[in-house]
Every structure is written in structure tokens, then in C-alpha cells.
């Protein structure tokens, strides 16, 4: 079984920083980055679980929900990952999004 603890830790750290960020930072793009990440992580999880189905897009629930959305999507992906390379790529995605978000 693949240890996905690094992914859940990275997602939790990003989510915690988003929750602590001022509203102005969220409005300047941090929430948009988080939503884009959540959508990508959710799509990856769906492709693993249902490879023949078209992934459904995570809805935009607003800037104050972005942290929760990346937490849910990241943990969903962590549950279905079996490939270490996919895990490494997911970690890169989280790190890159957090840098772009500036939190």
C-alpha cells in the first residue's frame, strides 16, 4: 500500500494557510489557485476510480470554501493512489499551486 501521508500533509498545510489568509489575499487569486488545484486533484481521483467516465468538474463554492475543497479533493486522491509517480506529481501540483497562491 502506498503511503500518501505526504500528500495529505501538503494539502492540509495549504488549506490551513488559506484559512488564515486575509480576504484580500483570497480575492487576489489565492482562492482561484486553490479551486484550480481542487478541480485537478478531483479529476485525477475520478480518472483512477472510473477511467472510462468523463470526470465531473468540482463547482466553485466561493472563495471561503476553497480550503475545504482542496482538502476534500486531496484526501479523495490520496485514498485511490497506487502509483508513486502519480503521488509525486500530485505533491508537485500542490506545491506549485501554493506558491502561485502566495500563502
TrEMBL record:
<protein>
    <submittedName>
        <fullName>Uncharacterized protein</fullName>
    </submittedName>
</protein>
Amino acid at each position: 500500500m502506498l503511503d500518501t501521508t505526504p500528500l495529505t500533509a501538503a494539502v492540509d498545510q495549504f488549506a490551513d494557510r488559506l484559512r488564515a489568509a486575509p480576504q484580500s489575499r483570497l480575492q487576489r487569486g489565492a482562492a482561484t489557485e486553490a479551486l484550480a488545484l481542487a478541480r485537478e486533484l478531483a479529476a485525477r481521483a475520478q480518472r483512477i476510480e472510473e477511467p472510462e467516465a468523463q470526470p465531473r468538474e468540482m463547482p466553485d463554492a466561493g472563495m471561503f470554501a476553497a480550503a475545504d475543497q482542496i482538502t476534500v479533493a486531496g484526501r479523495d486522491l490520496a485514498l485511490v493512489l497506487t502509483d508513486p509517480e502519480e503521488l509525486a506529481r500530485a505533491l508537485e501540483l500542490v506545491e506549485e499551486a501554493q506558491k502561485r497562491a502566495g500563502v
